[in-house]
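To: structure desk
From: M.T.
Subject: fold request, one chain
Message: Could you run this one when you get a chance? Sequence is below, nothing fancy, just the single chain.
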Amino acid sequence: MPLSPLHIETPLLRTAADYSESGLPLWLKLDALQPSGSFKLRGVGLLCQHEVAKGAREIFCASGGNAGIAAAVAGRALGVPVTIFVPETTSTEVRTRISATGAKVLVHGSVFDEANAHAVALAAERKAAYVHPYDHPLLWEGHATLIDEVVKAGAEFDCVVTSVGGGGLLAGIVEGLTRNGLHEVPVIAVETEGAASLHAAVLANERVTLPAITSIANSLGARQVAQHVFDLLDKHPIESVTVTDAQAVKACLKFADAQRILVEPACGAALAVADVHADLLSRFKAALIEVCGGIGVSLAALEAWRARFL
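Reply: Done. Structure tokens follow.
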């Protein structure tokens, strides 16, 4: 008997045509409203359930924030202790939000790669289940449910716009499109300048490791995309674009005013496409934007970003 999912079915809204420079009504999939604050609970919840069903008695996860709190929420629901490893770049506010779910938060390393290597090593030592934030087939299977929900709702769309970090969400969206017979629906993959590891890989025609993450959208801060995600470039129509931090912040503020929902710049990157790359969207009739959410945002943070960039 399949396990009941830990994520919820999120609302799907339609904007007015004048919401963006694209001049098109946009479908918005509001995964910012997940119990963990982002889409991550879809895949992370499924992977945690799978590990606990196999006998795991504790869960370790390395994360910049969003996968970590998703694992913490999942662990709380499943009744197992969770330890989240974050790099020094993860803000105190985000660490506090993760801790508030009951998870233990450990800071290790200056970048995600270092926190992740430490989590993997300790998980093996303690025989704990290790949950990767973006590179696992069960994560992609879980994230694919967002497309299942849109299809079930009867919404017709001819492209999907999504932010990309390590690529787990992109992989899930492609899986969701494929399993719903939407093989030809293209995905517009968006990154902020300074965190654009997929865009660099597209230009180089090979996976590239960025020397550093310089964008404020540190939820997109994977210095290299997963191999599976790079391989998808040859299997599904994917178009890689970038926006600036300022454009992402502007989109966050605009979205907050319109929908009264706060999202991170990592999510604002996808929302920015309808204005920054309006010519690209003009090729389509009904774009679907995955509003992926994120816990690294507050009114104070939005105001600070406004002052800095706008």
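Reply (cont.): The two ends are 52 Å apart (CA to CA). Let me know if you need anything else for the meeting.
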